[in-house]
Amino acid sequence: MKRFFTKNLNVILCVIMFVSLIVTSVVGFNLTKGKNGVDATDYSVNGGRLTYNFDTAGEMQNFSLYGEFGSLPYHQAGKVYFRAVEEQKLILNGYTFTDVEIIAKVQTINDGGKFDGGLYIQASNAGNGMDKINAYNINIENEVGASTYTVKLHLFAQAWSGIKAEKSGITLKGAEVTLKAVVKSGILYVFADDMQNPIFNYSIGTDAGQIGFRSFYSPHMLDSLTITSPSITLDKAQLESLKTSALNMVNSGAYTDVSVSKLNSAISLANNATTATLVQEATIRLNKAIDNALIKRTFVELTELISEAEQITDGSKYTYNSFSTFTTALSYAKGLTSSSAEHDIALWYSELQLAKDRLVILAGV
Question: How far is CA 214 from each of CA 3, 65, 83, 145, 182, rounded to the nearest angstrom?
């Protein structure tokens, strides 16, 4: 009897172990250990850091952009906008990663709006067209008006290759989600919002690849993207090029005192950039100072431009938004005097000229 009981107990234990292995294999993730059994209590990644807050359009130069039907993600008002009528991709250039931490702040059009997008990791061979990429995609998904969302791990190999892991029922906190992905020693850990523990993890291996963002037929806005990795090392080539451009602008004498002050401040930061993080911060500051620098204009030049602008009076010929922007700029420009600050005269000359150039004529007019 004892021998029979021992024998059957061994059989039961073997069955339990076998079932456990099947469940782990099929589900593909475990909340405390990855497939390789690594203890996953430390989710931090050391290394250099890149932060893109998209304060200026110049930051878009660091990314390749793709669209399913020809249109592309675009920069506006400190965010990257994705169109809701196609799949669009944004891929970071210049780096490939193995161990990496990525944090993205993603918004949709309003509370209760649709989410269907997220991070690419181990990406390569991205192209225009739906699913034209090799990558894992950590995707936020919900429907309009939903109070919860699902995070899914998709695999793409120039076509959709299936869902590898998912977690549903995550409470939606308004119109923004913070999505975080950590890859350590070949294991992917996925977090959302302020979670301290991962939603799920999955073994993706140690192949190096690019990172990026995917938007699938949803009105997403990418507010910021932060990447930390040992792969991020000191590279000052771009910084030195920007610094040279800024110095040339300062020495030209053509820009307002306010612009020159901001350029000099960014140049000083660049001169003291001794880490990858500081190099990236100085690069952003230089881009912003260069993009926003204003050429000096006299009050006489402004008055001449106002006279030209005042000849445009029939708003019915133009789109509402473009004509509204134009009339607002004209109003502010007319409010200045010969005693106004140099920078204000230059600013509203620039704004009025830009608004005039961007007037959109209605079709058929």
Answer: 60, 10, 11, 21, 17
- In the chain, % helix, strand, coil (3-state, to 5) comes to 35, 30, 35
Alpha carbon 243 to its chain centroid, in Å, reads: 25
The DSSP line for 301-344 is HHHHHHHHHTT---GGGB-HHHHHHHHHHHHHHHT--TTS-HHH
- Is the entire prediction scored with pTM above 0.85? no
- Using the 8-state DSSP alphabet, how is residue 209 labeled? B
Comparing CA positions, the residue from 350, 354, 336, 347 lying closest to residue 258 is 347
Q: Are 48 and 229 in contact (CB under 8 A)?
A: yes
Q: Which of 125, 89, 132 is nearest to 207 (CA)?
A: 125
Question: What confidence tens digit (pLDDT) does each residue in 256-294 have?
Answer: 999 999 999 999 999 998 877 788 889 889 988 999 999
286, 61 Cβ separation under 8 angstroms:
no
Rg of the chain over CA atoms, in angstroms? Answer: 27
Q: Which amino acid is at 332?
A: Y
CA dihedral sign, ordered 159, 160, 161, 164: positive
**What Å distances lie between residue 233 and 78, 85, 96, 346, CA to CA?**
26, 37, 12, 39
8 Å CB contact between 102 and 227: yes
Tokens, residue 293: 């620098």
Residue of 341, 309, 343 whose CA lies nearest to 328: 309
The DSSP-derived string for 136-193 is: EEEEEE--TT-SEEEEEEEEEESSEEEEEEEEEEEEP-TTEEEEEEEEETTEEEEEET
Q: Which of 78-92, 117-131, 227-241, 335-349 comes out lowest in average pLDDT?
A: 227-241
> What are the structure tokens assigned to 208, written together?
């190096």
> Which H or E run includes 91?
strand 87-92
Cα 260 to Cα 267: distance, rounded to the nearest angstrom: 10
N-terminal to C-terminal alpha carbon distance within the chain: 98
Using DSSP's 3-state secondary structure scheme, residue 288 falls into helix
